[in-house]
Amino acid sequence: MSEPIALKLTAKDFKSDQEVRWCPGCGDYAILAAVQQFMPELNIARENTVFVSGIGCSSRFPYYMNTYGMHSIHGRAPAIATGLSVSRPDLSVWVVTGDGDALSIGGNHLIHALRRNVNLKILLFNNRIYGLTKGQYSPTSEVGKITKSTPVGSADAPFNPLSLALGAEATFVGRTIDSDRKHLQSVLRAAAEHEGSAFVEIYQNCNIFNDGAFEQLKDPGTRDDYLIRLEHGQPITFGKDGQYCVVHPPRGFGLEVRETAATPAEEIVVHDATVADPAYAFALSRLPGFDLRNTPIGVFRSVRRPSYDSVVQEQLAEAKAKVTETPEQQLAGLLGSGDTWTIS
Amino acid sequence: MTKQIRQLDRVVIRFAGDSGDGMQLTGDRFTSETAQLGNDISTLPNFPAEIRAPAGTLPGVSSFQVHFADYDILTPGDAPNVLVAMNPAALKANLVDLPRGADIIVNTDEFTKRNLAKVGYASSPLDDDTLAGYAVHPVALTSMTIGALAELDVSKKDAERAKNMFALGLLSWMYSRPYESTLRFLERKFAKRPELVAANIAAFKAGWNFGETTEDFAVRYEIKPAKMPAGTYRNITGNAALSLGIVAAGVRSGLPVFLGAYPITPASDILHELSKHKRFGVTTMQAEDEIAAIGAALGASYGGALGVTTTSGPGVALKSETISLAVALELPLVIVDVQRAGPSTGMPTKTEQADLNMALFGRHGEAPVAVIAPKSPSDCFHAALEAARIALTYRTPVILLSDNYVANGSEPWLLPDVASLPDLRVEFATAPNGEDGTTFLPYLRDPQTLARPWAIPGTAGLEHRIGGLEKADKTGDISYDPANHDFMVRTRAARIEAIPVPDLEVEDPDGDARMLVLGWGSTYGPIGAACRALRQRGLPVAQAHLRHLAPMPANLGAVLRSYDRVVIPEMNLGQLAQVIRGRYLVDAIAYNQVRGLPFTAAELETMLEEVLKNV
């Protein structure tokens, strides 16, 4: 096999000529810039990259990428992208969605894309609010949230997107934050390298309708004590001085946070995203409370399972390999199959 | 004993039994034998939605009607000449359709006190005068089958289940059918269980021999082959023909076919059939729901495949939003609606034509699409090709309106020469089309077809974004400009209206008719048979049948205005009639039935004769 040709693309190549129309200060700008800067790294030609989105603020994303793109309808991007990806395995297909788009109206398509392991990179911009419709609570809003549609507080329990994805048999699950470009790009890199569905939740600030939703994870004064930065092969410790750690209590089902000083080193969990049992990644996804303490970011899970695309393509290839006739001859044979009779 | 042989020109037989009695299979086999003989055929299966309704009950009755003749026929027949009733429920459920004088072959073994009570017979209809006026042939089908298999190594249950083959053997003898294909079929079907091959063949032969020896059947019938155009034929259902049409569209366009589908009666058989044809480059995906099914098909079309989705009315309702997206994106997409009786779950295994309004108008915004309806089972093949042709040439969603009657009915199909099928090759955009030579304008239209370029991902230099937001003419950029929106809405409507479709043909052999009967879709057969019957009686009547419902043929208005009376029979409450009245200001008479069953030719004949009196 020959070496791939270096395309020498730059961030500028991925900027479309369209004026970006998010609110000033929106977290989406930071994500767009990070993605545009990251894409050249993949060395995939722009024409072989497709961004498919649904409806919502984040779903305007494809208009700003100078690749192929489709801004579709609310919640349906994973379904449309599935048809594209399965029939065009040569393409790199990305889905951009939001918490309302992916988890509310499009929940069914998201879980089925994940369990099929379609070769899609799914970026879920989670701002815990409906922005484009001007501020209703979303399926990731905290209980009691006061919004335009819930003046005395929402009664709904929220989804934990990562727990949901893991329950849907996702093979790659990660989380990152809009404002941390370096980390965001590191998770995108891992997602892009993954064969099959890669689900990435990006905490994104809506400065108009839910400003500061993730502030503790960004404020230099608090973030180190709130964030757990997962690194493959490393013991999970966090805090400004590494004062906290994650352990698996002997009789517990999940993971817990302890004081590092009071914990024997061998009891500290060493992060391994390749653990086959999704219970581990699930336990990681359950660590944070709604006060955002103990929020892991990074790659939770990355395991190998044949993608839906590859299985479908193999079946097609196998069937076609047996063919010795032209398509027209095959068709004539098919039309005339079964019991036929001739009238002269 | 030598039996008398009598010639007939046509016969209608109905096989009726419990859902578990194998009546569909029996009917299928009889049809196949009949096809081999060269008769013209039309069939009508009728079965409950429940897979196994309680045994022996009226809701559990399943039937299969086959009409065969020595001339070309248009319908599966209004009323059976022969009823095979495998149990009291089958007799009771079907007797109402049977004209006096008809033959009834009953399985007497099932006429037990318990079975009679299940369907409300106080006494056995075989013993009272319920069947007076019919030619009743009591046959102990079950016990004779078990007796015939006594020497074979099969369980009593398996032996009892072979009774449908006994019935088939008897009927095959009565109508002098060739049975080699049935024996071959049984060998294939039970290839893994040789004892069942032997049992079913023995049951079939026992039925045949019983006919030959019993004195109850004194007459054997022959129906000469029909005069049909020369060529090779096969018997085909509408769903099978439609599936083959989609495969053919893939071959003739050179494009991969992608079918997104969610199981739904009566469309699932298309998914089953297409899933077998991967060697043609046909990908099938059983999606998580109807919306994902069309979404995936649209995604595949975006990528350069022929995207197809198959469903029934409830599924079209769910797909509506995506159809509108496809209208905005101007991408090829074929949506197959095998209509069934609605609203809601309605009667899933019964036929209706009540989705026409939904196909024409059932979307948000001004969202015109092309709509085509096949008129018979074999026509589904050509209608599918036509739907694909329009979708690919004009880059538009096309709704193909089949229905349960054509989907599950069957008729002989003269196999087309593959080379004679339409050439559906398309050209993808490969280079910038802007005046500056470098810009790509995704909404710059072909002046002939008004279609926009199909620029598929992977084409360097044509990267562009499309979406559901209104687009500026030519550039495809997001636009909220009032004049642009007005222009785009009108253009989307105009481009559908401008699709050239063949003129409407009128069948009026003597050219003196003053009344026109206009139909669409599966009513072609019964309307045609009624018109023939009227003409044979010297009553002039013209028939025209719409295949293209959107756009409609250019000459339709002129045709309608050239008759004193226009009658529109439909299996809905007058949906086409309303469109015709609204569009052409023609005072058409709507004749409507929504009984879940096709029209009978006789009722249409009676109705049309009444209308004629006032013309």
Automatic annotation (TrEMBL), chain A:
One of its GO terms (biological process) is cellular respiration. Pfam families: TPP_enzyme_C (PF02775). It comes from the Bacteria. Residues 55-202 form the Thiamine pyrophosphate enzyme TPP-binding domain. The keyword Oxidoreductase applies. One of its GO terms (molecular function) is magnesium ion binding. Signal peptide: none annotated. It comes from Micromonospora craterilacus. This is 2-oxoacid:ferredoxin oxidoreductase subunit beta. Keywords: Oxidoreductase. The keyword Oxidoreductase applies.
TrEMBL record, chain B:
Transmembrane segments: none annotated. Keywords: Oxidoreductase. CDD domains: TPP_PYR_PFOR_IOR-alpha_like. PANTHER family: 2-OXOGLUTARATE OXIDOREDUCTASE SUBUNIT KORA, PYRUVATE-FLAVODOXIN OXIDOREDUCTASE-RELATED. GO terms for biological process: response to oxidative stress. Residues 20-207 form the Pyruvate/ketoisovalerate oxidoreductase catalytic domain. SUPFAM superfamilies: Pyruvate-ferredoxin oxidoreductase, PFOR, domain III, Thiamin diphosphate-binding fold (THDP-binding), TK C-terminal domain-like. It comes from the Bacteria. GO terms for molecular function: magnesium ion binding; oxidoreductase activity, acting on the aldehyde or oxo group of donors. Gene3D superfamilies: 3.40.50.920, 3.40.50.970, Pyruvate-ferredoxin oxidoreductase, PFOR, domain III. This is 2-oxoglutarate ferredoxin oxidoreductase subunit alpha. Residues 255-474 form the Pyruvate flavodoxin/ferredoxin oxidoreductase pyrimidine binding domain. It comes from Micromonospora craterilacus. The keyword Chaperone does not apply.
